[in-house]
Design a protein that fits this description.
mainly alpha; 6 helices; about 0% strand
């Protein structure tokens, strides 16, 4: 079994370095599903990074969430999907805040 601290650190690093490519999102989603037994910890990493990163990176995380949920459904690991459903309003508010600072991300959120 992998060290939970190391898994969190590597996943956080992947989230911080996401770019707009599908490959980047898929790589991070594969990593999350590889360590699905730590799904709650990894979910909290996603939420933390949504609060701490630039608006551009937040949009990339939003794309990643879409890939993660799709892959989780295909692999029949619905915990990630359920946790995202529970926190979707917090995610949307982080990616496209009501103060207008994330206006460029509104298109991403609407998808």
């Amino acid at each position: 079994m992998a060290d939970p601290f190391e898994v969190r650190m590597r996943f956080t690093s992947q989230l911080q370095h996401l770019n707009a490519s599908v490959n980047s999102s898929q790589k991070a989603a594969h990593y999350a599903l590889k360590y699905r037994d730590m799904d709650e910890d990894l979910h909290s990493c996603i939420l933390e990074q949504l609060e701490r990163n630039s608006m551009n990176n937040r949009a990339n995380i939003m794309y990643f969430i879409e890939h993660l949920c799709d892959m989780a459904q295909r692999e029949d690991h619905l915990n990630f999907v359920r946790m995202m459903q529970k926190d979707i309003l917090m995610v949307v508010d982080a990616v496209a805040p009501s103060d207008g600072s994330g206006a460029a991300n509104v298109k991403v959120v609407r998808r």
